[in-house]
Every structure is written in structure tokens, then in C-alpha cells.
Write a structure and sequence with these properties.
With 232 residues, this protein is α+β, with helices and mostly antiparallel strands. It has two domains: 78 residues, no CATH class; 103 residues, no CATH class. 33% of the residues lie in helices and 9% in strands. The protein contains eight helices and seven strands, in the order αβαβααβααββββαα. A three-stranded antiparallel beta sheet has the order 3-7-4. Strands 1-2 form a two-stranded antiparallel sheet. A hairpin with a 2-residue loop joins strand 5 and strand 6. Helix 7 runs antiparallel to helix 8.
């Protein structure tokens, strides 16, 4: 799944797929950076055409726009272009919420709120919670949403093991972290924040959940972030 995601982002950079920012700003940031920050909106029709050109089909419901091919006499068929040109229909883009992220804190008993304070992170600058909420969710929310284990305690322990030891034992999960957690100060807690969409992608690529399971949990718990679930 990560390979397909990288191919899609590269296609955006090349101009094969049209995209825009979800925040309405006009800054010309790379597609990879916009996706990491949860602000990438993919133009549906160009995505359909790109998928169809590569695989002969599109994963989106509704398929590709229909193509009207005029009747051509048999004697003239060899003069026709090999590939008919599709008629492009206007598409209304739905405003998309940014992917969200989950956090874990540092240095205490294995807890979803306290871990990873010892490792530098590409997104380790503290951000206001209201800003983080647009892009991410906390570790506890991820644990409740994505049930890898049937029993709640086993599921919590499974996630805490990975959140707490992300740098040393599970580095692949770090691609989903938006902001690193910090050690608690008295009653104040500073959890880490993670992207639900990227967590779902990680669960699928690591074979912890099937795609159908991960997408169903993502849509149920984080509908605003599931708008790009077709990328998984």
C-alpha cells in the first residue's frame, strides 16, 4: 500500500493527477508535504484516468466517465485513433478534512499517553491542540478505534508496546506520527498525535488488519479523515 501511495504522490508531482490544498491557500507546496500535513485533495476525474491507464480500472465507485464513440464504417476503422478520448465532465470536489493523528507520551509505565519523548521527530514542534485536531488524534483514540486484538486490555497492551517502542522496535509506524509526546508534568499530560489515515495504511501494509477491516474502523471512528480512504 505504501508503494501505491508513493506512486500516487509522484503522479501528482508530475502533473498526471490534479490536486489542490484543502485550506484554500495558494502556496505551491509539494504533494508529499501536503499529504503529510493532511491538506491534500485529489481531483477525482484525473485520479480515475490515471488508475485506468495503469491498471485498466479505478478503485473508486462510479468508475471512469463514459466515452461516446461515434459509429465508424469498417473501411475507416484503421484510420481511427487507437485510444478514444474521454469526454471530461465537471466534477464538484467535496471539501475534505485533513487526516488526523494520534499521540503517545513519554517515559512512564506503558501508557498510550506517555511515550516517545526521547526521540527527535520531523514534526516535533509543539502545536496548539485546536490545530492538531485538524490533522490528528491522540494515541488513546487510535487504540479505541482500531481493534487489532479482541479483548480491550490485550488491544491496549498491543498498541502501547508499539507506541512506546516506536523508535527502537517499530520504526515503520513513525510515518503516521504528527507530534511526539512529552513526559507528564503533575496532572498535565502531553500525548503524542497520530494520523488515523496513515495508521490505517500502516496496519494494512504490516498485515495486522485487512484493508476492509481498517477502512471500516477508520470510517466508523474518524469519518472526517476517511475521505481519502480510497488511497489505502
Amino acid at each position: 500500500m505504501q508503494a501505491k501511495l508513493q506512486a500516487l504522490l509522484s503522479a501528482c508531482e508530475r502533473g498526471d493527477i490534479q490536486y489542490r490544498r484543502s485550506d484554500g491557500k495558494t502556496y505551491d507546496d509539494p504533494a508529499h508535504e501536503l499529504f503529510r500535513r493532511g491538506k491534500l485533495l485529489i481531483q477525482r476525474q484525473s485520479f480515475n484516468r490515471w488508475c485506468t491507464a495503469l491498471e485498466g480500472k479505478t478503485p473508486l465507485s462510479g468508475g471512469t466517465p463514459s466515452t461516446l464513440v461515434p459509429a465508424v464504417p469498417v473501411w475507416a476503422q484503421h484510420h481511427q485513433p487507437s485510444t478514444p478520448v474521454a469526454t471530461i465532465q465537471p466534477v464538484t470536489l467535496k471539501p475534505a478534512a485533513s487526516p488526523v493523528m494520534v499521540t503517545v507520551m513519554a517515559d512512564a509505565p506503558v501508557s498510550a499517553d506517555e511515550n516517545e519523548a526521547d526521540t527527535p521527530d520531523a514534526a516535533n514542534e509543539d502545536q496548539p491542540e485546536e490545530e492538531l485536531r485538524k490533522r490528528a488524534v491522540t494515541a488513546d483514540e487510535i487504540i479505541k478505534a482500531f481493534r487489532v486484538k479482541t479483548l480491550s486490555k490485550q488491544n491496549k497492551d498491543w498498541w502501547n508496546e508499539r507506541f512506546t517502542n516506536a523508535t527502537s522496535r517499530y520504526p515503520s509506524i513513525l510515518c503516521a506520527r504528527v507530534q511526539m509526546g512529552k513526559a507528564s508534568q503533575g496532572k498535565l499530560r502531553f500525548p503524542s498525535w497520530w494520523s488515523p489515515l496513515l495508521i490505517a495504511s500502516w496496519l494494512i501494509s504490516s498485515k495486522h488488519l485487512s484493508r476492509d477491516q481498517a477502512v471500516r474502523m477508520l470510517e466508523h471512528s474518524f469519518p472526517d479523515f476517511a475521505i481519502n480512504a480510497h488511497l489505502l
